[in-house]
Amino acid sequence: MPDATPATPALTDEIRRLLSGVAVPTVVSILYRKGLRGMMMQAPKPLNPAATKFVGTAFTVRTIPVREDLVEATARGERPNLQGEAVARVAAGDVLVVAMEGETRTAFMGDIMTTHFLTKGVAGVVLDGGVSDAAAISTIPLPVFCCGTAGTPVTSHRLVVELQAAIGCAGVAVFPGDVVMGDANGVVCIPAHLAAEVAKTAADREAFEEWVLGEARKGRALAGLYPANEATMREYEACRAAGTGG
Question: Whose CA is closest to 142, among 133, 150, 151?
Fold first, then answer.
């Protein structure tokens, strides 16, 4: 099957900037209100608590349960090494998203591959499976979200069969070119065609909520403040116009 191609242009610097300044739950809430109710990956967790924030374009990898004859064919050079191709092709600014169906008895990558991704400028890695050398990866400043650790190579239980195709990772549909972002709260996938709208809406919402937090810190009652009524919204807009809010 030929590689799928993104339906929209690559992630722009402006979209990346806006999303880098907002939290995953904000984006999840916006997508939920737009009818997309299953876009947050619940299972993958960050290995390095100091490296959780990322925004990038999805580079997808699909795996299936292993079949030993195909592993042997790959070793003989009769079948392409798609894991190796994924490592070579994922680019700076991409998020490598690997679908492993929750398989944690095997590792897609370890600390050497993680270091390679870091030096390439890869934005992050998300997989619903295992990694090796988790203790070492936890010291590398590259966001890596996974579901477990293992010492065996990926071919012990999984086989990479397709790159840059639609996948399901941790219960979320991910297409090549979608925008994937993560932080300490988790990981969310934003359909590519919605990225610009969601980024702008999220930035506006967080600016408003920061103003609300300021009012709450002053001891203001929440009734009418949050959720905001019309009077509160007029007050906020006036503050923003005056440069004192948002």
Answer: 133
Are 33 and 115 in a shared domain? yes
Q: Is residue 140 domain-shared with residue 223, that is, in the same domain?
A: no
Tell me the whole-structure pTM to 2 decimals: 0.92
C-alpha–C-alpha distance, residues 122 and 58, integer Å:
11
Range of the domain at 234: 199-241
Alpha carbons 246 and 240: distance in angstroms, whole number: 5
The tens digit of pLDDT for each residue in 34-89 reads: 999 999 999 999 999 999 999 999 999 999 999 999 999 999 999 999 999 999 99
Number of domains in the chain: 2
Contact, 57 vs 93, CB < 8 A? yes
At residue 2, the pLDDT reads: 43
pLDDT attached to residue 245: 72
Q: State the alpha helices, DSSP H only, in the chain.
A: 13-20, 24-33, 68-75, 82-89, 111-120, 134-137, 195-217, 230-241
Q: Which residue has the tokens 């890869």?
A: 122
Give the CATH number of the domain where residue 170 resides.
3.50.30.40
CA angle 42, 65, 46 (to 5 degrees): 30
pLDDT band at 6 (very low <50, low <70, confident <90, very high): very low
